Structure to design on (63 residues):
């Protein structure tokens, strides 16, 4: 997957926490941390959408 550099603004506490995670070796970089967070958020949204669609389809089929 290709990457694109962007600039984001985060709460100072978030930055400090993520930087600690990097320094402790829990994540490769600040970018990697936010990429992983975004990927989880996207997957959660997709699962929620799929679940909602399943409910809608079931409702359309009737009792």
């Amino acid at each position: 997957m290709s990457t694109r550099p962007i600039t984001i603004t985060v709460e100072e506490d978030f930055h400090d926490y993520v930087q600690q995670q990097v320094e402790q070796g829990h994540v490769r970089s600040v970018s990697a941390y936010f990429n992983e967070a975004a990927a989880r958020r996207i997957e959660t949204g997709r699962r929620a959408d799929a679940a909602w669609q399943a409910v809608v389809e079931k409702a359309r089929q009737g009792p």
Summary: Residues 38 and 44 are 10 Å apart (CA to CA). Residues 12-61 form one domain. The chain has a mean pLDDT of 96. The longest helix spans residues 30-61.
